[in-house]
Design brief:
heterodimer; A: 114 residues; mainly beta; seven-stranded mixed beta sheet; four-stranded antiparallel beta sheet; 50% strand; B: 109 residues; six-stranded mixed beta sheet; five-stranded antiparallel beta sheet; 11 strands; globular
Chain lengths: 114, 109
Protein backbone atom coordinates (compact mmCIF):
# COMPACT_ATOMS: atom_id res chain seq x y z
CA UNK A 1 0.00 0.00 0.00
CA UNK A 2 1.15 3.49 -0.77
CA UNK A 3 2.05 5.72 2.12
CA UNK A 4 1.21 9.38 2.42
CA UNK A 5 2.05 11.08 -0.87
CA UNK A 6 2.74 14.78 -1.31
CA UNK A 7 3.30 16.96 -4.33
CA UNK A 8 5.25 18.80 -5.47
CA UNK A 9 8.40 17.63 -3.69
CA UNK A 10 10.28 20.87 -4.27
CA UNK A 11 9.22 24.28 -5.47
CA UNK A 12 10.58 27.80 -5.63
CA UNK A 13 8.38 30.88 -5.43
CA UNK A 14 8.96 34.60 -5.05
CA UNK A 15 7.60 36.87 -2.37
CA UNK A 16 3.95 37.76 -2.83
CA UNK A 17 3.11 34.68 -4.87
CA UNK A 18 0.67 31.98 -3.89
CA UNK A 19 1.32 28.25 -3.54
CA UNK A 20 -0.84 25.12 -3.37
CA UNK A 21 0.51 21.91 -1.86
CA UNK A 22 -1.25 18.57 -2.21
CA UNK A 23 -1.50 15.48 -0.06
CA UNK A 24 -3.04 12.05 -0.46
CA UNK A 25 -3.47 10.11 2.78
CA UNK A 26 -2.98 6.42 3.29
CA UNK A 27 -5.94 4.46 1.94
CA UNK A 28 -8.64 4.22 4.59
CA UNK A 29 -7.34 7.16 6.62
CA UNK A 30 -9.86 9.94 7.09
CA UNK A 31 -7.79 12.54 8.90
CA UNK A 32 -5.12 14.76 7.36
CA UNK A 33 -2.91 17.19 9.22
CA UNK A 34 -0.42 19.75 7.95
CA UNK A 35 2.82 20.74 9.68
CA UNK A 36 5.49 23.30 8.87
CA UNK A 37 9.10 22.46 9.60
CA UNK A 38 11.55 25.32 9.44
CA UNK A 39 15.22 24.35 9.14
CA UNK A 40 16.64 23.26 12.47
CA UNK A 41 13.27 23.08 14.24
CA UNK A 42 10.64 20.48 14.96
CA UNK A 43 7.42 20.45 12.94
CA UNK A 44 4.74 22.97 13.93
CA UNK A 45 1.04 22.18 13.58
CA UNK A 46 -0.88 24.17 10.98
CA UNK A 47 -4.23 22.42 10.34
CA UNK A 48 -6.10 19.22 10.95
CA UNK A 49 -9.01 17.98 8.85
CA UNK A 50 -11.28 15.04 9.53
CA UNK A 51 -14.16 14.00 7.32
CA UNK A 52 -13.74 17.23 5.32
CA UNK A 53 -14.17 19.45 8.36
CA UNK A 54 -11.49 21.54 10.04
CA UNK A 55 -10.76 20.03 13.44
CA UNK A 56 -7.91 22.25 14.52
CA UNK A 57 -5.82 25.23 13.51
CA UNK A 58 -2.39 26.18 14.77
CA UNK A 59 -0.98 29.63 15.34
CA UNK A 60 -0.58 30.64 11.69
CA UNK A 61 -1.88 33.74 9.89
CA UNK A 62 -4.96 33.77 7.67
CA UNK A 63 -2.70 33.59 4.62
CA UNK A 64 -2.67 29.87 5.32
CA UNK A 65 -5.76 27.89 4.37
CA UNK A 66 -6.57 24.27 3.64
CA UNK A 67 -9.36 21.98 2.64
CA UNK A 68 -10.11 18.29 2.45
CA UNK A 69 -11.89 16.65 -0.44
CA UNK A 70 -14.47 13.81 -0.47
CA UNK A 71 -11.70 11.32 -1.28
CA UNK A 72 -9.87 12.57 1.88
CA UNK A 73 -7.02 14.16 -0.05
CA UNK A 74 -6.11 17.66 1.01
CA UNK A 75 -4.64 20.92 -0.22
CA UNK A 76 -2.72 23.55 1.71
CA UNK A 77 -2.75 27.06 0.25
CA UNK A 78 -0.46 29.87 1.26
CA UNK A 79 -1.09 33.37 -0.11
CA UNK A 80 1.17 36.43 -0.24
CA UNK A 81 4.30 34.38 0.41
CA UNK A 82 6.97 35.75 2.72
CA UNK A 83 10.61 34.75 2.96
CA UNK A 84 9.83 33.20 6.34
CA UNK A 85 7.41 30.76 4.73
CA UNK A 86 10.39 28.85 3.35
CA UNK A 87 10.14 25.45 5.01
CA UNK A 88 9.38 21.78 4.61
CA UNK A 89 5.60 21.29 4.64
CA UNK A 90 4.61 17.91 5.95
CA UNK A 91 1.30 16.15 5.60
CA UNK A 92 0.28 13.42 8.01
CA UNK A 93 -2.60 10.99 7.93
CA UNK A 94 -4.33 8.93 10.56
CA UNK A 95 -7.40 6.74 10.79
CA UNK A 96 -9.35 9.17 12.92
CA UNK A 97 -9.06 12.73 14.11
CA UNK A 98 -8.69 12.02 17.79
CA UNK A 99 -4.93 12.44 17.88
CA UNK A 100 -4.39 8.94 19.13
CA UNK A 101 -2.67 5.96 17.63
CA UNK A 102 -0.43 6.07 14.61
CA UNK A 103 0.19 9.25 12.65
CA UNK A 104 2.11 8.75 9.41
CA UNK A 105 3.95 11.49 7.56
CA UNK A 106 4.74 11.99 3.90
CA UNK A 107 8.14 13.03 2.57
CA UNK A 108 7.09 16.66 2.48
CA UNK A 109 7.06 19.55 0.03
CA UNK A 110 10.10 21.79 0.32
CA UNK A 111 9.16 25.38 -0.40
CA UNK A 112 11.78 28.03 -1.03
CA UNK A 113 10.62 31.65 -1.18
CA UNK A 114 13.03 34.10 -2.82
CA UNK B 1 7.55 25.31 30.50
CA UNK B 2 5.54 25.23 27.30
CA UNK B 3 8.03 23.37 25.13
CA UNK B 4 8.85 19.73 24.59
CA UNK B 5 12.56 19.66 25.36
CA UNK B 6 15.31 17.43 24.03
CA UNK B 7 19.08 17.55 24.11
CA UNK B 8 20.33 18.74 20.74
CA UNK B 9 23.14 16.33 19.99
CA UNK B 10 24.36 12.82 20.84
CA UNK B 11 27.43 11.05 19.52
CA UNK B 12 28.03 7.32 19.98
CA UNK B 13 30.22 4.59 18.53
CA UNK B 14 28.78 1.83 16.38
CA UNK B 15 27.66 -1.11 18.55
CA UNK B 16 27.06 1.04 21.66
CA UNK B 17 23.63 1.83 23.06
CA UNK B 18 22.13 5.28 22.49
CA UNK B 19 19.73 6.95 24.90
CA UNK B 20 17.80 9.99 23.74
CA UNK B 21 15.89 11.91 26.39
CA UNK B 22 12.82 14.09 26.22
CA UNK B 23 10.80 16.13 28.70
CA UNK B 24 7.20 16.82 27.77
CA UNK B 25 4.72 19.25 29.20
CA UNK B 26 1.17 17.94 29.27
CA UNK B 27 0.51 15.39 31.99
CA UNK B 28 -2.76 14.50 30.25
CA UNK B 29 -1.06 13.49 27.00
CA UNK B 30 -2.43 10.11 26.04
CA UNK B 31 0.25 9.11 23.58
CA UNK B 32 3.92 9.97 23.24
CA UNK B 33 5.81 9.40 20.03
CA UNK B 34 9.30 8.98 18.65
CA UNK B 35 9.98 9.91 15.03
CA UNK B 36 13.18 9.62 12.99
CA UNK B 37 14.14 12.07 10.24
CA UNK B 38 17.00 11.44 7.84
CA UNK B 39 18.50 14.33 5.84
CA UNK B 40 16.08 15.71 3.27
CA UNK B 41 13.34 13.24 4.20
CA UNK B 42 10.02 13.23 5.99
CA UNK B 43 9.31 11.83 9.44
CA UNK B 44 9.35 8.10 10.03
CA UNK B 45 7.26 6.83 12.93
CA UNK B 46 9.54 4.67 15.08
CA UNK B 47 7.33 3.85 18.01
CA UNK B 48 4.82 5.31 20.41
CA UNK B 49 3.74 4.57 23.94
CA UNK B 50 0.37 4.90 25.61
CA UNK B 51 0.45 6.95 28.78
CA UNK B 52 -0.64 4.07 31.02
CA UNK B 53 2.52 2.13 30.14
CA UNK B 54 5.95 2.45 31.72
CA UNK B 55 7.93 0.69 29.05
CA UNK B 56 7.60 -0.54 25.50
CA UNK B 57 10.13 -2.66 23.65
CA UNK B 58 10.24 -3.15 19.89
CA UNK B 59 13.29 -5.00 18.60
CA UNK B 60 16.30 -2.70 19.20
CA UNK B 61 14.12 0.11 20.54
CA UNK B 62 13.08 0.54 24.18
CA UNK B 63 10.87 3.41 25.30
CA UNK B 64 10.71 4.34 28.98
CA UNK B 65 8.05 6.67 30.36
CA UNK B 66 8.16 8.39 33.74
CA UNK B 67 4.82 10.16 34.08
CA UNK B 68 5.65 11.70 37.44
CA UNK B 69 8.63 13.56 35.97
CA UNK B 70 7.08 13.85 32.45
CA UNK B 71 10.21 12.22 31.09
CA UNK B 72 10.42 10.02 28.03
CA UNK B 73 13.48 8.21 26.72
CA UNK B 74 14.35 6.17 23.65
CA UNK B 75 17.10 3.57 23.91
CA UNK B 76 18.57 2.15 20.72
CA UNK B 77 20.54 -1.04 21.32
CA UNK B 78 23.53 -1.97 19.14
CA UNK B 79 23.46 1.39 17.37
CA UNK B 80 24.39 1.26 13.68
CA UNK B 81 25.66 3.96 11.31
CA UNK B 82 22.27 3.81 9.60
CA UNK B 83 20.72 5.07 12.82
CA UNK B 84 22.40 8.45 12.29
CA UNK B 85 19.50 10.90 11.97
CA UNK B 86 17.47 13.45 13.91
CA UNK B 87 15.08 11.99 16.46
CA UNK B 88 11.96 13.87 17.54
CA UNK B 89 9.76 13.17 20.50
CA UNK B 90 6.20 14.44 20.36
CA UNK B 91 3.25 14.62 22.70
CA UNK B 92 -0.44 14.76 21.89
CA UNK B 93 -1.80 18.15 22.87
CA UNK B 94 -5.38 19.09 21.91
CA UNK B 95 -5.51 16.12 19.50
CA UNK B 96 -2.42 17.31 17.59
CA UNK B 97 1.26 16.58 17.95
CA UNK B 98 3.66 19.00 19.62
CA UNK B 99 7.26 18.23 18.75
CA UNK B 100 10.57 18.90 20.40
CA UNK B 101 13.39 20.49 18.41
CA UNK B 102 14.98 17.12 17.77
CA UNK B 103 18.16 15.32 18.84
CA UNK B 104 20.81 14.75 16.21
CA UNK B 105 22.33 11.30 16.68
CA UNK B 106 25.73 10.76 15.08
CA UNK B 107 27.04 7.20 14.98
CA UNK B 108 30.71 6.78 14.20
CA UNK B 109 32.29 3.53 12.98
Amino acid sequence: DAGVTQSPTHLIKTRGQQVTLRCSPISGHKSVSWYQQVLGQGPQFIFQYYEKEERGRGNFPDRFSARQFPNYSSELNVNALLLGDSALYLCASSLDGAGTGELFFGEGSRLTVL
Amino acid sequence: GEDVEQSLFLSVREGDSSVINCTYTDSSSTYLYWYKQEPGAGLQLLTYIFSNMDMKQDQRLTVLLNKKDKHLSLRIADTQTGDSAIYFCAEVRYSTLTFGKGTMLLVSP
